[in-house]
Specification:
Elements (H helix, E strand, L loop, with lengths): L2 E4 L4 H19 L17 H18 L7 E6 L2 E5 L2 H24 L5 H23 L4 E5 L2 E6 L2 E6 L3 E8 L5 E8 L4 E5 L9 H11 L4 E5 L3
Parallel strand pairs: 7-10
Antiparallel strand pairs: 1-2, 2-3, 3-4, 4-5, 5-6, 7-8, 8-9
Helix pairs in contact: 1-2, 2-3, 2-4, 3-4
Length: about 230
């Protein structure tokens, strides 16, 4: 069973936060509409449109604020762990994202909107992409596997597998905040390979990776700081 290292928020807290965001969005979205009636049926007010725009904001928040829906899990491996960008999470985020342009398109074609609509729509469409989806898709197949016998990784086109017995040294490169972001693997034959954790969307796992390496490869580890 996967080990949870970051649980999602409680249901009560998530619902409360989403309700507040929805209410604020609903209030602000009123200024987007030029008229006060739905052009398919004048008996309907703009409240449906305001609710739909608020729903688009909620979907955007659910994608960006992962603690709402998605716990962070580490997959156990025999004598070790596999750290990976969770594929199921990404698929669910993409599904949520696909609903957003449908909502925005409906509002655009069925209501008279002003220029504020395009700012609202742009934020809902662009923020999830630059915030989560772009890096998630780019690193869909990336992972770091650490066991007592093997170190294996994949970072886009870079990949490698190392037997621990053949590793001479593991240099943990940390930034000015003392946060691990690269691993330099020095092999017994003087071959050196850099595993760029900062390129692999493994931010949520960094502390666990650091702890695992320090505990399991204690005799091989040295700590260094990245050059300025």
């Amino acid at each position: 069973m996967a080990k949870i290292i970051r649980p999602r928020y409680s249901r009560e807290l998530s619902i409360g936060l989403l309700f507040l965001i929805f209410a604020l969005s609903f209030f602000l979205s009123g200024g987007i509409f030029e008229s006060t009636s739905h052009n398919l049926n004048d008996s309907k007010s703009i409240y449906l449109g305001m609710s739909l725009l608020s729903l688009a904001v909620i979907l955007t928040i659910l994608i960006l604020w992962e603690e709402m829906l998605f716990p962070v899990r580490i997959k156990p491996e025999q004598n070790g762990m596999v750290f990976r960008n969770h594929r199921t999470k990404l698929k669910q985020q993409v599904f949520l994202y696909c609903v957003i342009p449908v909502i925005l398109g409906f509002v655009y074609y069925e209501y008279d909107v002003n220029f504020r609509y395009f700012i609202w729509a742009g934020a809902c469409i662009i923020l999830p992409v630059i915030g989560k989806l772009r890096t998630g898709v780019n690193n869909y197949n990336d992972f770091l596997k650490l066991t007592d016998d093997v170190i294996e990784y994949k970072n886009n086109k870079k990949m490698g597998t190392f037997a621990v017995k053949d590793v001479k040294q593991l240099a943990l490169v940390k930034d000015e905040r003392k946060v691990l972001h690269k691993i330099n693997v020095l092999m017994s034959g003087s071959t050196e390979v850099t595993i760029d954790l900062d390129e692999m969307e493994l931010e949520d796992f960094i502390e666990s990776i650091d702890t695992f390496i320090t505990d399991h490869y204690e005799k091989l580890v040295i700590n260094t700081e990245a050059a300025a």
